Amino acid sequence: MSTPVDPVALTADLVRCPSVTPEEGGALVLLERVLSEAGFTCTRVDRGGVSNLFARWGRQGANRSFGFNGHTDVVPVGEGWQQEPFAAEVKNGMLYGRGAADMKGSLAAMVTACKQFISAHPDHHGSIAFLITSDEESIAIDGTRRVIETLEARSEKITWCVVGEPSSTTLTGDVIRNGRRGSLNGLLQVNGQLGHVAYPHLARNPIHGFLPALAELAAVEWDRGNSYFPPTSFQISNINAGTGANNVIPASMNVLFNFRFSTEVTADELKLRTEAIFDKHYTDYQLDWQLSGNPFLTPEGALVAATRAAVQEVMAITPELSTGGGTSDGRFIAPTGAEVVEIGPVNATIHKSNECIELVELD
């Protein structure tokens, strides 16, 4: 018996797969079966314990290829649910479950739409591809990144790509993300000298010594952004120091910070400017950098125009172009030369308890 192609039924089947990142929980296997039944050639690109699927329909050598990207993995359930997180309960026109909006609903809608398209256009001259991973919500090292490396190694390109992340704010399609800011993390350890607070001259307080550097970083204007991106932002997310006692000067302080940066600056420039500020104030530190992704931008062109026109036709609204929000796997696809946009359902409940998606959104 073939798998149902109704987007609501397929979303429910996917939600019932307990695919907490990086486990695929049966969701990727389900999609592989559905796509195979539709005539897609499916290839697993599993790496490092992560499950990945690349599926293609049509002519591999076609000079135009339309790709869909998404992930089956979901964040941990957490507390406060009024429904079973993996039961896919339908109530008052909403489908509830972890991953319903982020982003199993999008996957079900994209697969359903493609099956309908193939049925209506069996002799289409281009090709359609799906890049699906089980490692987007986690560290994203062995997920879409590895699929793209595999495609690049065999000179297989995606011309245009739609990422199904939940981009919408209040109404389906009201926001199209045509780029994302880069994300650069700093893991800092500041070294001092343990001692008694009554004898500070016999110790060295790393908090006192390094706070001026952090204050200067927080006040810097890194750039002014541009017509597509807001200015680069610097945020401290964690500071930890001390033994828990009120009479001990700590031996060290650990700081985690992040840059969300525009195309006006590079990761290397941010590193150099940051380290120069540190060295001006305090030199006894260790700093490790982790680049989650560089910024990418798809300027107005064929894909943006087609996506905007589709939203206007179906929803009778004019979507906003945005590069806001966090990172997505589009950061691995755009550097290949593909035009990339993100469009998906309303994101009001993603990562929350009682995550849900409106049934009409799926249609």
Structural commentary:
The protein is of the alpha+beta class and 363 residues long. Helix content is 28%, strand content 26%. It is built from nine helices and 19 strands. The strands form six sheets. A six-stranded mixed sheet has the order 1-2-6-3-7-18, with helices on both faces. A hairpin with a 2-residue loop joins strand 4 (90-91) and strand 5. Helix 5 packs across helix 6. The protein starts with 6 loop residues before the first helix and ends with a helix.
Proportion in β-strands: 25-35%
Give the overall pLDDT as a whole number: 95
Q: In angstroms, what separates the terminal alpha carbons?
A: 23 Å
Please state how the strands of the largest beta sheet are arranged side by side.
1-2-6-3-7-18
In percent, how helical is the residue content?
25-40%
Report the radius of gyration as a whole number of Å. 23 Å
What string gives the helices and strands in order? HHEEEEEHEHEEEEEHEEEHEEHEHEEH
DSSP, total strands: 19
What does the largest sheet look like? Answer: 6 strands, mixed
Low-confidence stretches: none
Structural class: alpha+beta
What secondary-structure arrangement, pairings included, does this model have?
Blueprint: H1 7-15, H2 27-37, E1 41-44, E2 52-58, E3 65-71, E4 90-91, E5 94-96, H3 100-120, E6 127-133, H4 144-153, E7 160-163, E8 175-177, E9 179-180, E10 182-191, E11 195-196, H5 206-219, E12 233-241, E13 248-249, E14 252-261, H6 267-281, E15 285-293, E16 296-297, H7 302-315, E17 320-322, H8 330-333, E18 339-342, E19 356-358, H9 359-362
Parallel strand pairs: 3-6, 3-7, 7-18, 8-17
Antiparallel strand pairs: 1-2, 2-6, 4-5, 5-19, 9-16, 10-14, 10-15, 11-13, 12-14
Helix pairs in contact: 1-3, 5-6
